[in-house]
Design a protein that fits this description.
The structure is a single chain. By secondary structure, the protein is α/β, with parallel strands linked by helices. The chain has 2 domains: 156 residues, Rossmann fold (3-Layer(aba) Sandwich), CATH 3.40.50; 174 residues, Glycogen Phosphorylase B (Rossmann fold), CATH 3.40.50.2000. The strands form 2 sheets. A 6-stranded parallel beta sheet has the order 2-1-3-4-5-6, sandwiched between helices. α6 links the parallel β7 and β8. α1 packs across α13, α5 packs across α8 and α9 packs across α12. It is globular, with a radius of gyration of 20 Å. The model has no long low-confidence stretch (mean pLDDT 93).
């Protein structure tokens, strides 16, 4: 089976993680399957011969998918959060028009892959796609994440980034759905330092844009708080160590297409606090405390429970280890291959 696989996300410097990470890990894993021949392309004119074209990304508001498809096409749609919460992601005339064009381009795709059952249900509702064309395939943590017990490595990173002795961790961007205000307030209420990692924390321009209003409010409230540490972008090899050092990972988002930091923390032996809505319960399994993202008190109670109850913390870590074993990039590749087969041999 010959697959033309679009690699344009790998050339985008802003896609070191997220879509770029998904593209890289899926491509590498698909290449391990003996029944596939992978041809990489960044422009459709480069495709020589293929049974299927796979676009591992879909932009809701920019042209990323051709209308005419002479070859059966698979597209990965990670989430449609901006369509679910338009009040927090105002589109404008251009955004609405491009979204209309992108919806039209989906009409003749052979299949849509998405990251979770939750995202599948939202794609059906907001993009009006038939259920039998949508296949949820769970993601997996990168191989670079693992539990570290070497104190020399741990202490070295603690010194490098001037990390507090104890802290809870957030990794991700500054979008509204990440719930920065509530998770930060909950950490402070629990009297624990909060470390925030993500390139978006370095980008403090354009704060008057409607999508940045929550981050602007976050900066106004917490940028000079001694308990709040914004590290910005951290190289992968250091991120793994910082994750291992955390007392807990916080991801009490209002919505997630998947919530990969949950698995990254679990494989490092770090307890997780995440939301009881959207995709997060299906990702976390029993290896997390599920909270109401709208309740600072609920998030704070979960943090305090992890910090104060050693036996509970130990059990949560063990459940996390059990849960993360269900996820692997080999499995992602195999299930993606099965989608290809369904298209060619219905």
């Amino acid at each position: 089976m010959k697959i033309a696989f679009c690699t344009s996300p790998l050339s985008n410097s802003h896609s070191v993680r997220g879509i770029g990470m998904y593209t890289k890990n899926l491509l590498e894993s698909l290449k391990q399957l003996p029944d596939l021949q992978i041809q990489e392309f960044s422009n459709i004119s480069e495709i020589k011969e293929a049974d299927i074209i796979h676009y591992p990304f879909f932009d809701l508001f920019e042209k990323s998918l051709p209308n005419q498809k002479r070859i059966p096409t698979v597209v990965t749609i990670h989430d449609v959060i901006p369509l679910v919460y338009p009040e927090s992601y105002p589109l404008g005339i251009k955004g609405l028009f491009n979204n209309f064009l992108q919806k039209m381009s989906l009409k003749n795709v052979a299949a849509i892959i998405t990251d979770s059952q939750s995202s599948k249900e939202e794609i059906i509702k907001y993009l009006k796609m038939p259920e039998n064309k949508i296949f949820p395939i769970a993601l997996a943590p990168a191989k670079k994440f693992y539990r570290i017990s070497d104190n020399k490595i741990l202490e070295g990173i603690k010194v490098k980034y001037s990390l507090p002795q104890k802290f809870v961790l957030f990794t991700g961007n500054v979008n509204w759905n990440k719930n920065l205000l509530n998770l930060t307030e909950a950490a402070i209420k629990s009297n624990i330092d909060l470390v925030l990692i993500g390139k978006s924390f370095e980008e403090k321009n354009n704060l008057d844009h409607p999508e940045m209003r929550n981050f602007k409010k976050f900066l106004e409230h917490y940028s000079v708080n001694s308990k709040v540490h914004m590290l910005g972008f951290v190289e992968d090899q250091d991120l793994v160590v910082v994750t291992n050092l955390a007392s807990a990972l916080l991801l009490p988002s209002f919505a997630e297409g998947f919530g990969l930091p949950i698995l990254e923390a679990q494989i490092c032996g770090v307890p997780v606090v995440t939301s009881n809505i959207s995709s997060m319960p299906e990702v976390a399994g029993k290896g997390a405390i599920l909270v109401d993202p709208n309740s600072v008190e609920n998030i704070s109670q979960a943090i305090s429970k992890i910090l104060s109850d050693g036996e509970f913390r130990k059990n949560l870590i063990e459940e996390g280890f059990r849960n993360v074993k269900k996820f692997s990039w080999g499995k992602v590749a195999q299930e993606t291959f099965e989608v290809y087969v369904k298209i060619l041999r219905p």
